[in-house]
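ok new one. same drill as before - structure tokens go in, u give me an amino acid for every spot. 441 of them this time. try not to just spam alanines like last time pls lmao
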């Protein structure tokens, strides 16, 4: 079994994460608990940055924090010199709580409200990624009324859609995000934005998909956006200083996934952009990227405790754990695949086929169909790997299950960064039924 990051197995056959025994973590914090190997996050952040440095390219690596948003992870991102991509007032508020350097915050979203935009202006964030004509108008209105300049990127859809190993190019991309690059929308957005006082256009942005394993789709997108930038220079004499190519770099959930080194994506993008800028005499733009999953995904492991077992003779055995779709909706929502191990019995043969079910009242609440594990007994610890991205951030309280605790582990130290929800937390927003107003009174 291929482990992740700093994970090892100690003499007792226990899974170690960040130099800490997972069995101890389960005792201290209870289960389910999501444990992050923060050294791996730091390594990934440094890897992306080093790739651009090696190529001599000015770059910003922004953590796409929708993958996992919390005060502590934002503080870690700041420590590592990352920028931050937020997509809502709530994520921006979390960034403010973490005192994240405002000039490195980028604000995304396809339907930002006046309240959210004003919040971004109040905090003087680095830039807003403008997504549509309504938003452009709102930004202009706010900027003028405050006489406060806001930097923006124009989000465009280049007609490239990439998922895992394949990408397709379509004439007209069917997407709710951004200005279409090919049908004139992006040009119109540029014309409007260029005329807006207090609005400074930095450049273009695109995001072509998620969990992508090859570089061609990215280099193709870089090429399309550079062509548009060149056209605007030739027609309007305008030069973009930033080219943001989004996120989407794939990770290994199961042995079938064979991701590239994060560096490779960065290097190949930088190569295409610097090649074209040389060829066209276009001043080299800063390259920005926005990895989410590839920074935090495989750094996270969820520890669960096994509970009931149900055998369906001749078909399968279900082992239920103390969490499920409430803390990881991805298998139910996307048919996402995960691997797991018995955290206390890593040396035992993993040769029994079982299906790991959650405890929610929903037949589809299965975390792993046909996992290969030792014979788990009630009380045994189960580690589900690669749960660092889009799990806690998409968690809910279905069946009023409290959301799990989140812990950081590094070099033998561990720290709670999100405490487990309590039953009191679950009813905190509830208000009691009021006495009905009687008819006729
Ligand atoms: N930038 C933009 C504008 C994005 O929309 C996203 C992800 C990212 C960056 C980061 O992509 P990443 O590097 O994490 O692939 N809930 C889904 C994934 C949704 C991705 C949404 N946008 C999942 O669990 O697979």
């Amino acid at each position: 079994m291929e482990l992740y990051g700093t994970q090892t197995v100690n003499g007792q056959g226990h899974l170690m994460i960040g130099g800490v025994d997972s069995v101890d973590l389960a005792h201290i914090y209870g289960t389910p608990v999501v444990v992050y190997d923060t050294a791996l996050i730091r390594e990934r952040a440094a890897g992306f940055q080093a790739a651009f440095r090696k190529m001599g390219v000015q770059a910003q690596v922004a953590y796409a924090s929708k993958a996992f948003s919390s005060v502590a992870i934002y503080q870690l991102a700041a420590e590592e010199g990352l920028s931050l991509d937020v997509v809502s007032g709530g994520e921006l508020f979390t960034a403010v709580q973490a005192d994240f350097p405002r000039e490195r915050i980028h604000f995304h979203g396809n339907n930002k409200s006046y309240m959210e935009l004003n919040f971004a202006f109040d905090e003087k964030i680095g830039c807003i990624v403008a997504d549509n004509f309504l938003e452009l108008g709102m930004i202009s209105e706010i900027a003028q009324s405050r006489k406060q300049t806001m930097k923006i990127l124009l989000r465009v859809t280049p007609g490239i859609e990439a998922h895992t190993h394949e990408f397709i190019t379509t004439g007209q991309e069917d997407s709710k995000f951004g200005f279409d690059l090919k049908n004139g929308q992006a040009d119109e957005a540029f014309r409007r934005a260029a005329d807006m006082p207090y609005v400074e256009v930095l450049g273009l942005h695109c995001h072509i998909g998620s969990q992508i394993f090859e570089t061609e789709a990215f280099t193709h997108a870089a090429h399309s956006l550079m062509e548009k930038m060149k056209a605007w220079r030739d027609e309007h004499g305008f030069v973009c200083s930033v080219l943001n190519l989004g996120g989407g770099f794939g990770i290994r959930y199961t042995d079938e996934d064979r991701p590239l080194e994060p560096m490779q994506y960065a290097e190949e993008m930088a190569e295409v952009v610097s090649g074209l800028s040389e060829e066209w005499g276009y001043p080299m733009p800063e390259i920005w990227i926005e990895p989410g999953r590839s920074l935090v995904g495989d750094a996270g492991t969820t520890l669960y405790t096994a509970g009931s077992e149900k055998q369906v003779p001749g078909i399968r055995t279900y082992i239920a754990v103390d969490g499920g779709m409430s803390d990881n909706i991805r298998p139910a929502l996307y048919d996402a695949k995960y691997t797991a191990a018995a955290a206390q019995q890593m040396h035992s043969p993993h040769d029994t086929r079982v299906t790991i079910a959650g405890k929610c009242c929903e037949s589809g609440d299965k975390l792993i169909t046909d996992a290969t594990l030792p014979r788990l007994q009630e009380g045994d610890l189960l580690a589900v790997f690669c749960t660092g991205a889009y799990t806690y951030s998409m968690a809910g309280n279905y069946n009023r299950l409290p959301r799990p605790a989140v812990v950081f582990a590094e070099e033998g130290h561990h720290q709670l960064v999100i405490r487990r929800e309590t039953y009191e937390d679950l009813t905190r927003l509830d208000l009691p039924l009021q006495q009905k107003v009687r008819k006729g009174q």
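The pocket of LLP is lined by residues 64, 67, 85, 108, 207, 210, 246-249, 290-294, 330, 334, 389-390 (CB under 6 Å). and btw The radius of gyration is 24 Å.
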